[in-house]
Amino acid sequence: MAVYTDVSDEDIARFVAEYDIGNVISFKGIAEGVENTNFLLQTDQAPFILTLYEKRVNPDDLPFYLGLMDHLSSKGLNCPTPIHGTDGVALRRLCGRPAAITSFLNGMSPRRIQPHHCAGLGTATAQLHTAGQDFDIYLGNAFGVKGWRPLFESCRSDANGVQPGLEQMIEVELDFLEANWPHHLPAGVIHADLFPDNVFFFPGQDDVSGVIDFYFACNDLLAYDLAICMNAWCFEPDNSFNVTKARNLLSSYGKVRPLSGDELAALPILARGASLRFLLTRLYDWINTPKDALVTPKNPREYINKLRFHQRVDSASAYGLSEE
Ligand SMILES: Nc1ncnc2c1ncn2[C@@H]1O[C@H](COP(=O)(O)OP(=O)(O)O)[C@@H](O)[C@H]1O
Ligand SMILES: N[C@@H](CCOP(=O)(O)O)C(=O)O
């Protein structure tokens, strides 16, 4: 459950009056989600999502996120479109928090991921990368390679309590990634959190119907976004890697935005980096989330297994593709 901020009926009526979106019919908190408070807002015109940005979102970054969604929507990507008030402003304040209303996207995140979902995801990811190329605001990745060591230092003393030997494992991996990170690869706007809960499909259809939650989006290596997807979509619940899903993901991506030989060769290290990134943020949350918190922290151990898998990989052929 992630509704951190209460909003009264009077507050919402006053807030909605600043837009040209009709009158409020209903308004309810959304349990899913971790970072922000989301409400499903139904007016007599349409459904919308109202988001109140909570502590973990840096308010200075909000113009990037909202501007990016505006930009991608204008290029035909199915992502939430920020709704602007009658004064033209999309980013406002409600109950002491930065807040915005965006369009509501139909569709559902897949409960059981099938290979065809990975194909759809590959196409949508490449479309997002292509559409983001001429977005003119820059935001570095706070959870990119430079951010991993400070994050590790903030929680390393508790790492072995989560799994014996974890502190040493992360230390060695960090040294390797910092020394070998492929900074030269093509970069641009990435989503950086393309997990199944942020990608919608219509039942029985292969194409992605919408992508949400752009609040980790940033500028980084394009192929790194694919590595994040591979980790989030191509492992089975028993931790085995599904090469068919990975092949579908990568080959569908490549049909829209062909991957260079360098990008393909770098996939194993990018996947190691993507594993470490989510291992570290989950470890931090695992250690620091109070027992009575509204959200249950995600298990970091899942990402230890993923990291170990990629450490044994030496070429993209393990992901179902040949390097040319
Ligand atoms: N534009 C949208 N259209 C439809 N549902 C949405 C939209 N934005 C958010 N949601 C719903 O709200 C939930 C939480 O949103 P999300 O952005 O993932 O939150 P958080 O950033 O807090 O993790 C999603 O799982 C989805 O059910
Ligand atoms: N995808 C991350 C956690 C971020 O959650 P989201 O609800 O904002 O997508 C993870 O799995 O560690």
TrEMBL record:
Q: Which InterPro entries match?
A: Aminoglycoside_PTrfase, Homoserine_kinase_II, Kinase-like_dom_sf, Pseudomonas-type_ThrB
Its Enzyme Commission number? 2.7.1.39
Tell whether Kinase is among the UniProt keywords: yes
Biological process (GO) annotations held by this record are: threonine biosynthetic process
The UniProt keywords, alphabetically, are: Amino-acid biosynthesis, ATP-binding, Kinase, Nucleotide-binding, Threonine biosynthesis, Transferase
In terms of domain of life, where is this protein from? Bacteria
Q: Under which pathway is this protein filed?
A: Amino-acid biosynthesis; L-threonine biosynthesis; L-threonine from L-aspartate: step 4/5
Question: Which Gene3D superfamilies does the entry link to?
Answer: 3.90.1200.10, Phosphorylase Kinase, domain 1
GO MF terms here are: ATP binding; homoserine kinase activity
Family named by the database record: Belongs to the pseudomonas-type ThrB family.
Please state what the protein is called.
Homoserine kinase
